[in-house]
Amino acid sequence: MMTLHSILALAYLLAAVLFIFGMRRMSSPESARSGNSIAALGMLVAVGATIPLLKGVASPSLPHGQTLNYVLIVLGVVVGLVVGAIGARSVKMTAIPQMVAIFNGVGGGAAALVATMDFANRLHGGAGVSTIFTITMPFSTLVGSISFAGSIIAFSKLQGFIEKPVTYPLQQAVNAAILAGIAALWVYLIGFGQSTLLFLLLFALSLLLGILMVLPIGGADMPVVISLLNAFTGLAVAADGYNTNNIAMIIGGTLVGSSGTFLTVLMCKAMNRPITNVLFGAFGKVAVGGPSGNGSTDKSVNPIAADEAAILLAYAQMVIIVPGYGLAVARAQHQVRELADGLEQRGVEVKYAIHPVAGRMPGHMNVLLAEANVPYDKLYEMDAINSDFQRADVTLVVGANDVVNPAANSDKGSPIYGMPILNAADSKQVIVLKRSMSPGFAGIENELFYNDKTRMLFGDARASVSKLVNEIQRMN
């Protein structure tokens, strides 16, 4: 006859399988929704299996005479479910990056609090804190706190509360001093004495480090930052799982930590920049001047009216649409889908070119276009579509900037030189929808805008696309 612990162990194994299978299905936009549901089911199984074990696992670390309050535990689960459901239903697709940052930060903060409280309870409850726990608990507190505080700053940048990178003299030296202080406290806790007050000080310094690490990073690098902080949260949760002997937390945290790290490396590769440059380069400061940021330009652009642009699109054989953050800001995804439908009714082949770091979070453009029910088979990753630009009659750039800048291929003095881009400049005609000639988050002017083949349609992207839709409808 199976014991309760055997049944719960099998439940953890089932949760782990669901986590892995769900994450595997998230690798494709077409299966991502079902993958998310499968992973959520795995989390439900893991939580359901954990509650019966809480008393046996946690009681050794509780102060003498203290018992677990199951009412508060169930209340926490219910509140979390309600807040998560409301957030998922009410937050607009354009604000998904902010929600991801907040939810990730909450996970990191929770992991840090669990480690801190577990340390204090073990120390004052008479259970004692072994050397291995003195290593893993501060680790969980450190990376969890950095994730929480850094995610709050990332949210503020994405929401527009902090518009520019915040820098000051000796910034990196200050961060290094804080990190050295954290390391000193950690070493003291391991080899010289255990103190709740010193552990709380380590907690506070970790929060401060998380804030100061993200403040100087520009908005263009927020996808990388969110991915890295997500990996931190996973590692913190895995360390907590070790501390509390929870297999599901170890497996789930390790999966998140490893996948987040891998995604961070891939995005840095897509920008041709090392992670150290993202974290310590304060990339995103607006440079003044031309393509390389070293001087002014006297080049002129070729504007175009909506009716002229509509004619170019309507009589094309192939049109490639390049979405960017400007599409998200203007909330123009539905209008873009309507434009594509109108063109396809006229026999025009329409494709969407997706750059891996377009937007403000990994997969941002995929999420926006999915909301507008754009068919998944029309979304093409950069490597799959770059060769098609040469055959495209028109490339329509909607709010994208740095990811289509030819300077990445030709200007060795440009800060984005070597970054893989969408080769929009190879198409026969380019129409760029943009509010103004202001540079993108990289702070440099876009050579594509001055190309003889490029026409600039100025204005709000949503309004401009709506005008294009109306003009094409008049031709039918």
Compute the gyration radius: what is it? 25 Å
Shape: elongated
Largest sheet: 6 strands, parallel
The fraction of residues assigned to DSSP E strands is 5-15%
The total count of strands amounts to 6
Strand order of the largest sheet: 3-2-1-4-5-6
Give the CA-CA distance, first to last residue. 73 Å
| Assembly status | single chain
What structural class do you assign from the helix and strand content? alpha/beta
Spans of 5+ residues with little confidence (pLDDT < 50)? 57-61, 282-296
Portion of residues within helices: 55-70%
Q: What would the average pLDDT be, to the nearest integer?
A: 85
Number of helices: 17
Secondary-structure element pattern, one letter each: HHHHHHHHHHHEHHEHEHEHEEH
Would you kindly provide a written description of the structure presented here, covering whatever features stand out?
The protein is of the alpha/beta class. α16 (407-410) links the parallel β4 (394-398) and β5. Helix content is 59%, strand content 7%. It contains 17 helices and six strands.
What layout of secondary structure does this protein have?
Elements lengths: L3 H22 L6 H27 L11 H21 L5 H29 L6 H29 L11 H21 L4 H19 L7 H23 L2 H24 L4 H6 L25 H9 L3 E6 L1 H6 L2 H13 L3 E6 L9 H8 L7 E3 H4 L8 E5 L8 H4 L18 E6 L19 E5 L2 H15 L1
Parallel strand pairs: 1-2, 1-4, 2-3, 4-5, 5-6
